[in-house]
Amino acid sequence: MAEKVILNNWSPQDPIITSADLGWRKSDYLDAESYNSEKVFNYFWRNFNSIIFYYTKDGNFYELFMEGNPFKFWRVRNLPAWNGVWIVDKIAWNDHEEGDVLFTFNDDTDLWSELKVDAIPIGEVIKQSVIAEINI
């Protein structure tokens, strides 16, 4: 199957995102020691402080933020001064300011089953997303 261009304005360094760039990267599977998407997802949210991804279907960044109690899942706010060119410039990367909180959860929550974006299960959302940043 040929790779389909999904975005052509991701960043000045890597402008094109193809279908092969969506979802977990090979290095993510290796870090989690699994090729099962659910296990990879659970590994990262349970062992890291933050996961930021860009959901290509709705054009928003989302963050799973695992600091504090309860943990939060939010839609990241777009910068008011975004010039509309490079998608990675839509948000402030160093700020991690809380956006629209969509879900709060604890460390024993079955996020794989419960977390959704616009009624779409998180596993399907990840398949259509660019994993932009995973923070320790």
Describe this structure in words.
With 136 residues, this protein is of the alpha+beta class. The protein has one domain (5-135). The chain contains four helices and nine strands; from the N terminus they run ββααββββαββαβ. The protein has helices at 26-32, 37-47, 111-114, 122-127, and strands at residues 5-7, 17-18, 50-55, 60-65, 71-75, 100-105, 116-117, 120-121, 129-135. The strands form three sheets. Strands 6-5-4-3-9 form a five-stranded antiparallel β-sheet. A two-stranded antiparallel ribbon has the order 1-2. β7 (116-117) and β8 (120-121) form a beta hairpin.
- The end-to-end span amounts to 35 Å
Describe the biggest sheet?
Answer: 5 strands, antiparallel
Tell me the number of structural domains. 1
Strand order of the largest sheet: 6-5-4-3-9
Care to count the β-strands?
A: 9
Question: What are the segments in which pLDDT stays under 50 over at least 5 consecutive residues?
Answer: none
Multimerization status: single chain
